[in-house]
Description:
Layout: H1 2-10, H2 17-39, H3 42-49
Transmembrane segments: 20-38
Keywords: Membrane, Transmembrane, Transmembrane helix
Organism: Pseudofulvibacter geojedonensis
Amino acid sequence: MLKFVKQHMATIDGVEVYPIISLLIFFIFFIALFWWVVRSKKEYIEKVSNLPLDH
């Protein structure tokens, strides 16, 4: 099965760029998420963390 997929992917022109693009999207997403967490206000984090306990 892997041999079939590997041979099929080898016939596509420019296929080597897709893993690079997906890796960049992955890192950009997690860097943006980390930046949002660092920049978020402490009051917001406390409010959201206490939501399950507010019953």
